[in-house]
Design goal:
mainly alpha; 2 domains; 87% helix
Length: 89
């Protein structure tokens, strides 16, 4: 990330210009990225189950299920890493 991109990021976060980015940044600062990733895995599991019965096009369902699978995988990896750190510290 270059200097201008970093300045643009902080401007968007601090000004509220990008509310989602601001909210996510606040959550990461408060809880830490590992905790956020692990919580998103739980959300992804529920969302993927809901997507199966939702009134969606096949493309929409596929996009949601794919995103959920990727988030769930990252969450599983983070859970495993945290378990490893707890076992070895």
């Amino acid at each position: 990330m270059d200097v201008q991109a970093r300045e643009d990021f902080w401007k968007a976060v601090e000004s509220g210009e990008d509310p989602l980015l601001s909210a996510m940044n606040s959550l990461v600062e408060r809880w830490g990225l590992p905790a956020l990733i692990m919580s998103m895995g739980t959300i992804a599991q529920v969302l993927s189950e809901d997507a199966l019965d939702a009134d969606l096009t096949p493309n929409q369902r596929g996009l949601i299920l794919s995103a959920c699978a990727q988030v769930a995988n990252l969450s599983d990896l983070m859970h495993a890493e945290m378990a490893h750190l707890q076992a070895n510290n």
